[in-house]
Hints:
Elements: H1 14-19, E1 26-29, H2 31-38, E2 43-48, E3 55-60, E4 77-79, H3 86-97, E5 106-108, H4 113-122, E6 127-131, H5 134-140, E7 144-150, H6 153-160, E8 167-172, H7 173-178, H8 180-197, H9 202-207, H10 211-214, H11 218-228, H12 240-253, H13 269-278
Parallel strand pairs: 4-5, 4-6
Antiparallel strand pairs: 1-8, 2-8, 3-6, 3-7
Helix pairs in contact: 3-12, 8-13
Amino acid sequence: MQVTVMNIRDDVSSTDMLSDGRVDAVMAYYHHTIVAQSEGRDEEAIVTLGVTPGVKVMVANTVKEKFKALSDLKGSRIITGGAGSSKTTVANYLVIAGGNRISDYTRLGADGKDANVEALRNGSADFVVAPTPDGSFYESQGVATVFADLTSVEATQKYLGTLFPSSAVYMDSRRVKAHPEIAQFLAAAFVRTLSYINAHTPEEIAAVIPDAISGKDRNAYLNILKEEIPMFATDGRTPAAAAEKEWRVLSEFNPALKPIDLSRTFTNEFVDRALRRSR
């Protein structure tokens, strides 16, 4: 099967492209399938690549002695970005895990890393949810320290109590039914990729990545790779219990998500078939 990988522009909706068949699948965070169903569209993850948020929650150095546990997040101000973003979902998850309500913290917009640094330095923000490798940037600026590292499976289970389906490949459900061979091909390819990632060192993986992807600074890319690889400690299956927990957190923030049928937001059928064939 011939596959074309596309970077979709900001002015082109991936939702529209999925619906009208311009693309067969999208790689983004799993929760998009939950939101899609609440808006009347059926989209389903056919393989889940990441089972951690892949972020570090950084606490401002000026207040780090004040925040020692998740229960301390009440009253905090956290830079997360948009209301429906994955970073906001992570913040909501941590606040709830600490026994608080979503309304017990203040969500702040993100105006870029430089603006975030100033907010952490001048006391107008207490935390920032930083995707890899931004956490290291805030540390290098001397303004923040890691509060919760959610890049590994072990740490994610420690802080959230379960895994967190993040990066996923999903398709329009009508497309899956009409062309199951596409879903099966993609699932098999990504299952093989995950198997390779989890069986090789960062150095071995970096060695097969072309310069067009890694950029000229191979050492910098290798350091980022070392932080990102723990996100993919999975076989491609969507963990049902973790998906349900994520949906419950999302619906606490947006009640419109509560009536959905979660079973229609993902399927493990194609991954399970790929795993059986690989044994």
